[in-house]
Amino acid sequence: MSQELVIDIIQNAVMVTIVASAPPLIIGLVVGVIVSIFQAVTSIQEPTMAFVPKIVAVLFSLIIFGYFMLNTVIEYTSNLISTIPSVVDIIRN
Do 80 and 9 touch, CB atoms closer than 8 A? Predict the structure, then answer.
């Protein structure tokens, strides 16, 4: 296998991981910041108030963006499987 092919496969895998995991992470981050600001303003130090809204927001984002995330991973896997014959040709030569 050529080094360029291996680097390309790894680079694509990292990009797919970032793209597929970004929606829940960004929404969890935004909700966490909003809850933290709300807690600082109101001086409420309830620990469950920090976790419950983030969990609900992440679950909601998975419901909304799950189809996009699944299609991204399926597309990458399909492209990876379709490159197997070319990898076999490179190994044989």
Answer: yes
